[in-house]
Amino acid sequence: MLKKIYIIGPVGSGKTTFATALSKKYNIKYYELDKVSWDDEHGNIKRTDEEALKIFNKILKSKSWVMEDVGRSKFKKGRSEADIIYYIKLPRWKSYYRVSKRWIKQRLGKERYNHPPVFSQWIYYLSTVNSYYKKEKRKIQELKEYSDKLVIVNNKDINRIINEK
């Protein structure tokens, strides 16, 4: 059975939804590495790399975990220690659509948020998507060193994985 699962994908790809489902399926705690990088409890402040890595390394010492991230290099050790790495492949347009839809739901109070859904936050999300896709080929290339445990998935694959017995 998988005990250490690392999920990578662009903003709006469904990383958190996938991580939550796998967490429930395998009864393993999941971690959003955004929440390791940012201190939401004290006003959404970006942690220093030292602070974030201290928290991250504590998570790595756990017997099992599901973690999700956009593939930041500072968390590379998690990929090395994972039993499996899922890379969510999503068309760019779909990522733009999903972050826009998420932002609207947050503005209307229909979805929880980590960052206040002001207009500048929506622009930031869109720029983050754009930046991610400019680096996507390089990210996938870097993951080739884990080819023995890398699984590239789309939304249909994710649903199949979640529903497998």
Topology order in helix (H) and strand (E) letters: EHEHEEHEHEHHHEH
**Major beta-sheet overview:** 5 strands, parallel
Which strand order do you get reading across the main beta sheet?
2-5-1-6-7
How large a portion of the residues is in β-strands, by DSSP E? 15-25%
Spans of at least 5 consecutive residues whose pLDDT stays below 50 are none
Please report the total strand number as a whole number. Answer: 7
Task: Tell me what you see in this structure.
With 165 residues, the chain is α/β, with parallel strands linked by helices. The chain is built from eight helices and seven strands. It has helices at 15-26, 33-37, 49-60, 76-81, 92-107, 119-134, 136-143, 155-163, and strands spanning 4-8, 30-32, 38-39, 45-46, 65-69, 84-88, 150-153. The radius of gyration is 16 Å and the shape is globular.
Secondary structure elements and pairings:
Elements: E1 4-8, H1 15-26, E2 30-32, H2 33-37, E3 38-39, E4 45-46, H3 49-60, E5 65-69, H4 76-81, E6 84-88, H5 92-107, H6 119-134, H7 136-143, E7 150-153, H8 155-163
Parallel strand pairs: 1-5, 1-6, 2-5, 6-7
Antiparallel strand pairs: 3-4
